[in-house]
Amino acid sequence: MSDFINSGWSAFVAAATILGLVACVLLLLFASRRQPSAADNTTGHIWDEDLRELNNPLPLWWMGLFVLTILFAGAYLALYPGLGSSAGKLGWSSLGEHAADTAQARATMAPVYAAFNGMAPEQLAKDPKAHAIGERLFANNCAQCHGADAKGSKGFPNLTDNDWLWGGSYDTIVETITKGREGNMPVMAPAVGTSEDVRNVAHYVLSLSGSPHNALYAQLGKPKFVACAACHGPAGQGNQALGAPNLSDKIWLHGWGEQAVMAMVNNGKHNVMPAHGERLTPEQIRVLAAYIWSLSQSQAVAAAP
User: Fold this and answer.
1) Which residues contact 266 (CB under 8 A, 6 or more apart)?
2) Enclosing H/E stretch for 72
3) Is 144 left (phi over 0), alpha (psi -120 to 50) or beta?
4) Residue ranges with strand state E in 161-288
5) Within a 13 Å sphere around the CA of 172, how many CA atoms are in the beta-carbon half?
């Protein structure tokens, strides 16, 4: 219960739990008091002329199970977390158990990854065993966003081409997996000008890659592109140091066309690639990075010894 925003919620949960157990005990005591209301052991209620409700006591086996349930609940709350933020006498937590299981799994796999120590990225990518492990690591940690084939989708980069926002070298991929990335395209409409200026600069951006565009609008938008050149460069070829995409190719991460480019200028975009440095070991990241690197470097992998 470490996610309580203040101690008051912890006290509230603990009090509600204890009151619930006390209410169960009181209910049992109340129900166990047999008070005959008629000489014939009925409650005095009659339905359909001859249907009577008997006033029999609770079965002993039922009462015994009810008592055992209350005792079990009390013992559980004393030993395990359940009373708000109390850790319990045993100090058990799901987070601790997960950490122990993770440590055990890593220790089991350590000899497997030890065989890859000292291998160059090209050798890792070409090694069948390392490649298979990297493929499984990708399926478990990366495919949710980049797709099972690593070709991405709208908003999620394709990892099989050579168009990289932050760089596609092996060391850069290791850094990206370990630390994550945070890309920010600010709202540029105020810097560009009017809505017509935004439209014109959108057509100029489309012209950089030879995509369908209005040549007149593009010519008018060229001077306004200076507001974008600070990140994307004068020729729109991007800047991997900033994660600014190349606008001169025909690879569009968030869609292409006049409306898509205008939406980016008007609304901006904030993308996050989560860090996996705490989720994966350095050895796992090395193997995974080699697998991802190989997806766009088939010739380099083929030439490796």
Assistant:
1) 187, 189, 198
2) helix 60-79
3) alpha
4) 181-185, 269-273
5) 11
Residue 216 DSSP one-character state? H
Contact status, residue 122 vs residue 286, Cβ threshold 8 Å: no
- What CA–CA distance (Å, rounded) separates 189 from 109? 52
Do 185 and 270 form a contact (C-beta atoms < 8 A)? yes
Matching residue, tokens 């001859």: 50
Two tokens, residue 13: 């949960």
End-to-end CA distance of the chain: 53
Contact 144, 264 (CB under 8 A): no
Tell me the chain's radius of gyration from C-alpha atoms. 33
Dist CA 154 CA 142 (whole Å): 15
For residue range 155-182, what is the model confidence (pLDDT) as tens digits? 999 999 989 999 999 999 999 999 999 9
How many CB atoms are located within 10 Å of the residue 238 CB?
20
Give the residue from 303, 291, 304 showing the smallest Cα distance to 160: 291
Q: Which two tokens stand for residue 47?
A: 């339905």
- The pTM (predicted TM-score) of the whole model is 0.73
Render pLDDT for 2-31 as a digit per residue (tens, 0 to 9).
555 667 888 888 899 999 999 999 988 887
